[in-house]
Amino acid sequence: MVLGIYRRSATIRNLKRKLYFLFAGSIMFVFTIAFFLLASENIETMQNAELNFVNRQATNLTLLFEDSTNYVENLEICEKKYDYIFRLFTEHDELLYESTNIKDAAETIDLFLEKLKSIESVGTNEAH
């Protein structure tokens, strides 16, 4: 009789330990999924904020040059003041203006254009 009670309590303790690990694992899994969802949302928000910033800066530059007669001088001022790099083309793909330090930033520009294209392609895929 005593041996039967001991086996039952050992079985119950063993089952209790397994259920504890199952519960702890489930809670950790739920928190991990929630963490990754929040991190993903945060990355998307940061990308959208960067894109909005670039759009605002482009609008600002458009308004600045709208009434300007000497765009080269204004571009050079903007390069120095805001640390911008410009490469402007005509509608016939002829080079109109290029910053003097564009060679130093070629990799950064290529990376930015790749990110911009990927964001735009994701946006067009979501629209369809």
Shape: rod-shaped
Quaternary structure classification: single chain
Structural class, judged by helices and strands? mainly alpha
Percent range of helical residues: over 70%
SS field, number of helical segments:
3
DSSP summary, beta strand count: 2
Instruction: Note poorly predicted spans.
Output: none
Order of helices and strands: HHEEH
From the alpha carbons, calculate the radius of gyration and give it in angstroms: 30 Å
In terms of DSSP E residues, the strand content is: 5-15%
The main pleated sheet reads as: 2 strands, antiparallel
Q: Report mean pLDDT, rounded to a whole number.
A: 82
Domain tally: 2
Separation of the first and last Cα atoms: 72 Å
Strand order, main sheet: write it out: 1-2
Secondary structure layout:
Layout: H1 2-66, H2 71-82, E1 87-89, E2 95-98, H3 106-127
State the main characteristics:
single chain, 128 residues, mainly alpha, two-stranded antiparallel ribbon, 3 helices, rod-shaped
Could you describe the 3D structure shown?
The protein is mainly α and 128 residues long. It folds into two domains: 67 residues; 60 residues, no CATH class. Helices cover 77% and strands 5% of the residues. It has three helices and two strands. A two-stranded antiparallel sheet has the order 1-2. The N and C termini lie far apart (72 Å). The model has no long low-confidence stretch (mean pLDDT 82).
Summarize the structure.
This protein is mostly helical. The chain has helices spanning 2-66, 71-82, 106-127; strands at residues 87-89, 95-98. It has a two-stranded antiparallel sheet.
